[in-house]
Structure formats: structure tokens, C-alpha cells
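TICKET: design request
STATUS: open
ATTACHED STRUCTURE:
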């Protein structure tokens, strides 16, 4: 896979919607193929939530974007819990239908925003990975959307002035620059694959990858000049 060297410098307003479309086309058929019992599986990355809870959160967040319902406290833990509770009596099929609608219709709304909603699209993609982990599916944080997710991560971290990091990724031909460039701190350095980088930025478990030896005895990734915990963009 390749990507332009400057993809992190300029916001592409269509990218969040394109990422949602790619994920919709892969995730929704997977969800519709699973038995109802699988939706009661716990999601490790979201303590206390089942797969169904996670999907209800995802669908409600996207519908809020579509309908532009951003009251005070939106997307807070309390708001998320209320949105999930409102869907407690829904069938699983109805939750999936709402998710499909949200992944289809939210993109144009995000494109017209000033960029502050871009993280919603990335968060949806990460949660899709969380669900795949719960299902035991391979490539939980990879797939066709990976290049777009990496590019969007670069855009978001740059817009937020996040700490600078240069990533040399197995998945891309060009280095990916993340975060701001204030000069107050030299850039950190990451060497590894895209899914691991995204797990770090999303605060997701690495399944033993953190500093651990791979199958051939080589480190799963290298991180210098920054602590893993500093990268999380979805933390408190």
C-alpha cells in the first residue's frame, strides 16, 4: 500500500465518509452473518459493554451526527450510556440497520464540518476493530480501510496539536507524520505496522505486542521519545 508523503498535512473532507463507507461494506455483512448469541460477547476494549452495546453506541453516535443533535454533554460516558439504554428493547437487526444508515449518511455531514467531527469516523472504525476482536475475527484493526484510517489519524493528531511522532510503517511506502510541530518537543519515532500504531493511539490492548518479541524474536514494534500512554487520543 502507498500513500502520498503529505497526506497528513491537509484535511481531506471526504476521507471520514470514505472510511465509513469502506467499513460499512465489510462490517455490516459480517454482523448480519453472526448468530444473536455473539452480540452478547464482551468487548475487552470497552469494559462493561457487550458487542451489542458497542454497536448501539456506534449507531447512535452516527445518527446524532446525521441529525445534528449535539446537546451539552454529547458523547460523554453518561450520554453514551443513555443512548445504549434507549436501544435496549430494539432487536439486533434494528441496531445493525441504524448503524448501516449512520455509516452511509454521516460522511457528507462530517465533510461539511470544520474537522471536529472527523474523530467520530475514526472512532467508528476503531470500534469495528473492537467488535472483530470480540468475534475472534482476524485483522481486527486492518482491512481495506487501514490506509484511510492512518491518514485520518495523521490529520486529527495534527489538528489537535498532539505530540509529534514520525511513524515508519510496514503498511505504507512513505513515513507518516503525526501530531503538531511546535518545536517544544522533538518528534517521537515509531517503527512497526499500522494496526499496532492505531491500537496505541486508540488505547487498545496490543495482545502481547507491546515491547514483546515476535515469532522470530524481533520486537513487534519500536517506540522511542514518547511513552505509549501519551499517544492515546480517546482517553479521558
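STATUS: resolved
RESOLUTION: sequence designed for all positions
ATTACHED SEQUENCE:
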Amino acid at each position: 500500500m502507498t500513500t502520498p508523503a503529505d497526506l497528513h498535512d491537509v484535511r481531506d473532507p471526504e476521507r471520514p465518509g470514505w472510511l465509513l463507507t469502506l467499513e460499512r461494506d465489510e462490517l455490516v455483512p459480517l454482523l448480519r452473518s453472526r448468530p444473536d448469541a455473539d452480540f452478547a460477547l464482551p468487548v475487552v476494549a470497552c469494559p462493561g459493554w457487550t458487542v451489542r452495546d458497542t454497536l448501539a453506541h456506534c449507531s447512535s453516535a452516527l445518527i446524532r451526527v446525521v441529525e445534528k443533535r449535539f446537546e451539552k454533554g454529547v458523547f460523554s460516558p453518561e450520554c453514551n450510556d443513555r443512548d445504549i439504554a434507549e436501544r435496549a428493547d430494539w432487536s439486533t437487526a434494528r441496531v445493525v440497520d441504524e448503524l448501516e444508515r449512520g455509516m452511509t449518511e454521516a460522511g457528507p455531514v462530517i465533510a461539511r464540518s470544520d474537522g471536529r467531527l472527523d474523530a467520530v469516523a475514526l472512532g467508528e472504525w476503531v470500534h469495528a476493530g473492537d467488535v472483530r476482536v470480540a468475534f475472534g475475527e482476524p485483522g481486527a484493526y486492518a482491512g481495506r480501510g487501514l490506509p484511510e484510517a492512518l491518514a485520518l489519524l495523521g490529520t486529527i493528531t495534527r489538528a489537535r496539536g498532539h505530540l509529534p511522532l514520525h511513524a515508519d510503517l510496514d503498511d505504507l511506502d512513505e513515513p507518516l507524520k503525526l501530531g503538531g510541530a511546535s518545536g517544544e518537543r522533538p518528534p517521537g519515532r515509531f517503527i512497526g505496522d499500522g494496526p499496532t500504531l492505531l491500537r496505541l493511539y486508540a488505547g487498545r490492548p496490543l495482545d502481547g505486542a507491546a515491547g514483546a518479541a515476535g515469532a522470530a524474536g524481533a520486537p513487534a514494534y519500536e517506540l522511542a521519545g514518547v511513552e505509549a500512554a501519551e499517544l492515546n487520543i480517546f482517553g479521558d
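CLOSING REMARK: Residues 92-111 form the longest helix (20 residues). Residues 1-8, 208-219 have pLDDT under 50 and may be disordered.
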